[in-house]
Amino acid sequence: MMKRYLFLLIVASVLLGLWTRPGVARAEGAPLIHQVQEGETLADIAQRYGVSVQELMALNHLRQGNRLVANQRLVINPPQQDPNGRIYVVKQGDTLMGIARKMGVSAAAILKANKLQSGVIYVGQRLKIPKRQNPASQARTQTVTHVVRRGETLSSIAALYGVTVAQIRQNNGLKDGDLIQVGQKLVISGQKKKPQAKAARGAKKFVVDISEQRCWRYEGDVLLNTWRCSTGRHNSTKTGRFRVQSKLRKAYGSTWNIWMPWWLGIYWSGPVENGIHGLPWNAKTGARTWAGLVGTPITYGCVMLNDKAAETLWRWADIGTLVIIKR
């Protein structure tokens, strides 16, 4: 009687899918776990489950050359979670923002539910997913505050959350070149902002009128700016069609011992390159040259703008941008 009972129990277990191979353990809703047997290698285990050695190493945080030991437990394959589930197992390539969008909740809600201090996640990590929010609520709350850690950069933080550096800069009022500091708090938004339609389209062009001492910045036929400018004294600025041929944050004029900020070189006048720049300063004393004289023919042949306009032009213009100088 006892033998018959054991036989029936084994048959029932097999039919119900509860009979597992030695070395394998799996619980409801948990990833597949393999218990290493004596003599097994990563290649053996990878072949057995139809995965790659690289996947096993990534899932289990193993490095090249790590040896397996008997009874060691390895994660084989985190299950793909239903977006309506309450647990999500992190996969290769996942970011916190990406998971939040997939699961229909905010990244902040995931951080709070899992008591996480930042968006750093790892493969195989099990995240509690709170209840879904309605789309309007999600749009309002899809933001995270990230505290900068030692060694982090804007690029590495953007990669963590699946956003762009430009989005982080815009959300936090950072300018190009601004440095971040350890302990600084950054607002990270996972909402993909709808790109604003460009008001100006077409080829870039900068026009200088010597007789009016005015300059115009165009994209195609759309006028972006009108600025006062200064050209060369004694009509020393050439007229014609030129192209931006050099671009420097500041250029040194050795003949006059001056520094010229936001330099865009446009043509050669003998051994000297003439160009467009902001207000120069004396390299020895630091005193500004021609301050307050923008709009007056005062330079040695270059086109001079005030610093703000010169910086705008410098950041906008590319090598090869058309420059037209006329009278």
Structural description of this entry:
The chain is α+β, with helices and mostly antiparallel strands and 327 residues long. It has 3 domains: 24-77, LysM domain (Membrane-bound Lytic Murein Transglycosylase D, Chain A, Roll), CATH 3.10.350; 87-189, Membrane-bound Lytic Murein Transglycosylase D, Chain A; 204-326, L,D-transpeptidase catalytic domain-like (Beta Barrel), CATH 2.40.440. It has helices at residues 2-15, 42-49, 53-59, 96-103, 107-113, 135-141, 154-161, 165-172, 307-316, and strands at residues 24-25, 32-35, 73-77, 87-89, 126-128, 143-147, 185-189, 204-209, 214-219, 222-228, 240-243, 246-253, 258-269, 272-277, 281-282, 303-304, 322-326. The strands form 5 sheets. A 5-stranded mixed sheet has the order 10-9-8-17-11, with no helix packed on it. The protein is elongated and about 90 Å long. The chain starts with a helix and ends with a strand.
CATH topology of the largest domain: L,D-transpeptidase catalytic domain-like
Beta-strand percent range: 25-35%
The helix tally amounts to 9
CATH architecture of the largest domain: Beta Barrel
Low-confidence stretches: 9-29, 136-141, 191-200
Helix content: 10-25%
Based on helices, strands and strand pairing, what is the structural class? alpha+beta
Q: What gap, in angstroms, lies between the N and C termini? A: 114 Å
Radius of gyration: 32 Å
From the spread of the alpha carbons, the general shape counts as elongated
Query: What's the main sheet like?
Result: 5 strands, mixed
